[in-house]
TrEMBL record:
GO terms for molecular function: glycosyltransferase activity. The keyword Oxidoreductase does not apply. It comes from Musa balbisiana. This is O-fucosyltransferase family protein. It holds the Pfam family O-FucT.
Length: 517
């Protein structure tokens, strides 16, 4: 606009000068006799006046064109002074290009390079990581290549991103924030004779770390590859716009494939026919027990098997674990038997429909016997869907987990028996969806109460009353995330309580609701 103003003022000065000269010439216009006496001088003065008028008219037209282009952007020849026509090239960002995604201009976007990421972990750990990586790409103005998923962990699932998530929706729904591509451009990748610069970013880092440490590396190498993505962005202290972007990616940008969504909707519809239903995330699976070292209730043979497995995975750093010590600290998943007593104490009646969201329970039906005896209406996806419907998802644990995720978010009550990644991410999604009832079990208190009950130091009524009292404020109500500076692993996880995205309007709409069973 400064360029336009300068031209406008200069043009009017010049035009005023021309008008003065024309008026002056007219005032001195000679009489016919004088003109004849002067010979060709009168003709020359007339020619000068005509030339001045033409110059003045030309500048008036130029000024009109400049003003017109302030509201209309023409397609100009390269030789024209575009700096005075194109508002988008003015100022400090004069070299910024328009990025095009899917053939449409979406705004000013100058890519500083390319970001490739290899996610690690299960479905929900990777889901949160994808949200963080997109946020980082946006913050650094990087072009993100569709993330690679973990195929080498315990689950050994060969699924690619497009087998689980809707790629087109992912790209298009976030196109106004970040450019996402399915692969590095061939023209660009052909210049890279070696593997791209690879590194794991520092865990729980702020946005400043990525600006100061990572952006210079991208500018140097053009492509950077993050080979670890779990918990690489801080829970707290980030700008509000980045926190809200994490929510937008998680709750709007990441959708499962149409096939997974359709089957998940069918599961939810079947469960809804019975009315009220509970999802129990019974995290009593072999990998969790081996990783955590929790063997309470296991036989000696099972304990040996779990220990061998823990030593077989080098990336599970903790090897020597005292199971009972961890249990008393509340760091172990509840056993199926313990879970049965807690559900009864909380007031879930025998006729409750309970959907088990988990993989294969370690110990099989032997360990599930007490739970089934108290709650005969226990179901799993394998019981509600035909073998034919589940066949495309067999041997793809991540895709099966996606079905459980959808049912968990939609349930009337969600009860996780361990605060793993699925428990946390589902809890946060349910908060975002309107603070749906989620019972976050206080395992440390529960274990102490269970032991007192077993030792006969508490009656059943005392035990039940105590369990309800402990959890009266752990039913999914709005709360503030716990922040512990310098100890991010111990503070509340962003994706379990995205408070920046729930807002006062969502909170006020549920304040009158009773958060009990």
């Amino acid at each position: 606009m400064a360029c336009h103003s300068r031209i406008w003022s200069e043009d009017w000065w010049f035009f005023g000068r021309v008008r003065w000269m024309v008026d002056e010439a007219r005032a001195r216009k000679p009489t016919p006799a004088a003109g004849r006496a002067s010979g060709g001088g009168g003709w020359r003065r007339a020619a000068v006046r005509t030339w001045m008028l033409r110059v003045g008219s030309s500048f008036l037209i130029w000024t009109a064109v400049v003003q017109l282009t302030s509201v209309w952007q023409p397609r100009l020849p390269r030789s024209w002074p575009a700096a005075c026509f194109d508002r988008r090239s003015a100022g400090a960002n004069a070299t910024v290009d328009l990025s095009v995604i899917g053939g449409e201009e979406h705004g000013i976007y100058k890519s500083n390079g390319y970001l490739k990421v290899s996610c690690n972990g299960g479905l929900n750990q990777m889901r949160a990581a994808i949200c963080d990586m997109v946020t980082i790409a946006r913050h650094l103005n990087l072009t993100l290549v569709i993330p690679e998923l973990d195929k080498t962990s315990f689950w050994a699932d060969p699924s690619d991103f497009g087998d689980i998530f809707n790629v087109n929706h992912f790209i298009n729904s976030l196109r106004d924030e970040v450019k996402i591509i399915t692969a590095l451009p061939k023209k660009f990748s052909s210049k890279i004779r070696t593997e791209p610069f690879t590194m794991p970013p520092v865990s729980w880092s702020s946005e400043k770390y990525y600006l100061k440490q990572i952006l210079p590396l991208v500018r140097k190498h053009k492509v950077i590859h993050f080979n670890r993505t779990d918990a690489r962005l801080a829970n707290n202290g980030l700008p509000l716009r980045l926190q809200k972007l994490r929510c937008r990616i998680n709750y709007e940008g990441l959708r499962f494939t149409p096939e997974i969504e359709a089957l998940g909707d069918k599961l939810i519809s079947i469960l809804r026919r019975s009315g009220f239903f509970v999802v129990l995330h019974l995290r009593y699976e072999m990998d969790m027990l081996s990783f955590s070292g929790c063997t309470h209730g296991c036989s000696d043979k099972e304990t040996e098997e779990l220990t061998r497995m823990r030593y077989a995975f080098p990336w599970w750093k903790e090897k020597e674990i005292v199971s009972e010590k961890k249990r008393l600290e509340g760091l172990c998943p509840l056993t199926p038997e313990e879970t049965t007593l807690v559900l009864r104490a909380l007031g879930f009646t025998r006729d409750a429909l309970i959907y088990i969201a988990s993989g294969e329970i370690y110990g099989g039906e032997r360990r599930m016997a007490a739970l089934r005896a108290s709650y005969p209406k226990i179901v799993r996806k394998e019981m509600l869907l035909s073998a034919e419907e589940l066949r495309p998802f067999q041997n793809h644990s991540t895709q099966m987990a996606a079905l459980d995720y959808l049912v968990s978010v939609a349930s009337d009550v969600f009860v996780p028996t361990y605060d793993g990644n699925m428990a946390k991410v589902v809890e946060g999604h349910r908060r975002y969806a309107g603070f749906r009832r989620t019972i976050v079990l206080d395992r440390r208190e529960i274990v102490e109460l269970l032991d007192l009950l077993q030792d006969g130091k508490l009656s059943w009524d005392q035990f039940s009353t105590a369990v309800k009292e402990v959890h009266k404020n752990r039913m999914g109500q709005p709360t503030q995330r716990k922040v512990i500076p310098g100890r991010p692993k111990e503070e509340d996880y962003f994706y379990a309580n995205p408070q920046e995205c729930t807002g006062p309007s969502r909170i006020s709409s549920i304040q009158s609701r009773e958060f009990d069973i």
